[in-house]
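in:
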């Protein structure tokens, strides 16, 4: 069984404040050209996407330089639904996943499923704290996925992004359909981005097996 953990890319979908949204334009149609084709316009952080280190780290890995082995394999699922809309601290993570040893970890509050279409998502969703990022680094994770905000948009210095990406840990943001896997301890995870060698982020099709 394969569960899709990716938001559908479509016009009008919410996006990071200040970033251009997702749009398409039909270039050809069956009745005129005998085939259909479209142009797509979006930012690199649209919908379910991956942040490579280059997003915040000068000289850091770009999407094209991420290891394909890192982007697929067993992932530990951490149920954080009790903390939806809250700050996720190191104390919370150590209580909910005291034996975390996995390379990949999926932190799930259900915020995207409950709030992503709400204009208040970027103000109300859970966030990771800087000490939580440090705890994940100390656990030796190689990839972090979440279905909330990695950190609050009002946090200008972005310590969580700097910590994780500075340790070459890519971040998969805005996972959805968390209810499909929340009762699992471990899933086989895939999150392959577009092959965009020089860019700092890319939408992904994230799935769990």
């Amino acid at each position: 069984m394969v569960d899709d953990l990716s938001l559908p890319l479509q016009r009008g979908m919410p996006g990071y404040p200040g970033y251009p949204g997702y749009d398409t334009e039909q270039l050809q149609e069956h009745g005129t050209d005998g085939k259909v084709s479209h142009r797509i316009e979006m930012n690199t952080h649209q919908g379910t996407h991956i942040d490579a280190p280059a997003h915040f780290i000068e000289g850091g890995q770009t999407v094209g330089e991420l290891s394909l082995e890192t982007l697929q394999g067993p992932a530990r699922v951490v149920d954080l639904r009790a903390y939806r809309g809250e700050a996720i601290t190191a104390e919370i993570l150590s209580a909910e996943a005291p034996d975390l040893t996995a390379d990949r970890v999926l932190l799930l509050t259900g915020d995207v499923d409950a709030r992503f279409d709400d204009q208040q998502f970027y103000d109300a969703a859970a966030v990771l704290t800087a000490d939580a990022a440090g705890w994940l680094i100390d656990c030796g994770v190689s990839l972090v996925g979440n279905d909330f905000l990695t950190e609050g948009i009002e946090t200008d210095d972005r310590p969580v992004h700097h910590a994780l990406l500075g340790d070459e840990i890519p971040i998969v943001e805005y996972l959805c359909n968390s209810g499909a896997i929340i009762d699992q301890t471990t899933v086989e995870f895939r999150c392959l981005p577009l092959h965009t060698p020089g860019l700092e982020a890319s939408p992904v099709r994230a799935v769990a097996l």
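note: The chain has six helices and twelve strands.
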